[in-house]
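REVIEWER CHECKLIST
Item 1: Sequence provided? yes
Item 2: Single chain? yes
Item 3: Sequence as submitted:
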Amino acid sequence: MKKILSFVLVLALMLGMCCSCASPERKNDKILLVTSFYPIYIFTLNLVDGVTEFEVECMAEQNTGCLHDYQLLSRDARLIADADAFVINGAGMESFLEDVYSSNENLRLIDSSEGIELIEECSEHHNEEEKDEHHEHNHTVNSHIWVSPKNAKLQVKNISDELVEIYPQYKGQIEKNRDSYINRLDKLSDELKLAFKDIGGKNIITFHESYEYLAKEYSLNIVATVESHDGEEPSARELAELVDLINEKDVVALFTEPLYKGTVADILSNETGIKVYQLNPVLQGEKSLTAYEDIMRENMSVLKAVK
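Item 4: Structure as written out by the authors:
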């Protein structure tokens, strides 16, 4: 199946490059930086702010969410074909695109995950049969690195270093933007430490694997991650086990996210009395330089409400 998917992706790229009616001609001679999805888009926007020679586009539209189950569109293949550089999250998040971007020998790849300590995925967080069916590009590590402000700063630095290497003529402005942005992220990190003060060390359950890096940075214990795929949710037996786990581990909160559409969180809340809270893993939002900080501060308000 992977080989078939790779062939289809490469074919889509070739069609995007060769078919005269498939891709409109570039209207300007700006340097096109294509980012894989929303958080990387925001990081890159900050780094090239004020440098009018750059144009930044996001491959996945802003309401896409996580790339785990993303289906490549012909528009995306054309965008990558037109790009001068492709900025990715890395850590396996875009592995399903490798055949597409590697087939463009003129494309510069910028991997923002370089040097970041990755968390291995825990098998108990997934049903192995479902994993094969729904995550065909099988990650061996957790790729949601950007949700941790500490990692976000490293990603920003990685992107900055690569941009300066490729486009040294803009070194001054890019590095000035980098320093300003990292200072803002440092301030955000300090604020989050205070927000986590009251729940640090406590046990929680999440409904997506987005929060492991955030939990590690601020000493939260994720005792279970409940994944829902295409409407499939835990069985009655698994629900009973989760109820027992909540009671045994003294779980203080259940955390969902804006794109969560399941019912298990409410069922567990009704069964145990544990409250459900919503955190945003910065997968969608406004086209704003402060979007990452704004969303994380909204998360901060949520965390302060946890008792």
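Item 5: Key structural point noted by reviewer: Residues 1-24, 123-139 have pLDDT under 50 and may be disordered.
Item 6: Recommendation: ____
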